[in-house]
Amino acid sequence: MKTITGLFDSHDEADRAVRSLKDAGVNGEDISIVANNADGKHDTETGDDVAEGAGAGAGVGAVVGGTGGLLAGLGMLAIPGVGPVVAGGWLLATAIGAVTGAAVGGAAGGIIGALTDAGVDERDAHVYAEGVRRGGILVTARVEDSRADAAAAILHDSSVVDIAARRRDYEAEGWEGFDENSEPYPADQIRDYRASLIAPPILRS
């Protein structure tokens, strides 16, 4: 099995990627999602914590097949350095194991560890964590080796973030790596950052 990972700047882009992965035959239980929820926009219908949903392999399968959108039904979790997220799937089950509760200390390090254990480069894992901290959505899929190239192509066809370019952008600001001891970004700062990513180019005469 190989791990295919993509960071997205919008829920719609992540939604399309997940649905395309499903259409290509990737099982819902092999897909994991972590999405920033600093603005409190997303909520769970049941109020169940993410550890229970992820541990059961639930969440993603229900989301993809449901009508409530990509993030409906996922569990809620507070990640140090990131803040509140909605998440579910095998990655979270790996990261937090049997821990339960609305907030799980050290979960961010657990996510990075889970990614690297699954074969993701550690430097990339830090960019993914920082991307979620800044409002992004992380989609991770476990696929058979024979499907890895096709799954990666699906992500690239779904407006996935160029991780190398995003790392350069972060490093230009003096960023050296994800720090779970950092203060989470407030909702208004995340909104401004998201807007800057989709701002139209400046036309010069």
UniProtKB/TrEMBL annotation:
Domain General stress protein 17M-like: 6-71
Cited InterPro entries: GSP17M-like_dom, Low_temp-induced_all0457
Domain of life: Bacteria
PANTHER family: MEMBRANE PROTEIN, MEMBRANE PROTEIN-RELATED
Identification of the protein by name: General stress protein 17M-like domain-containing protein
Organism: Devosia insulae DS-56
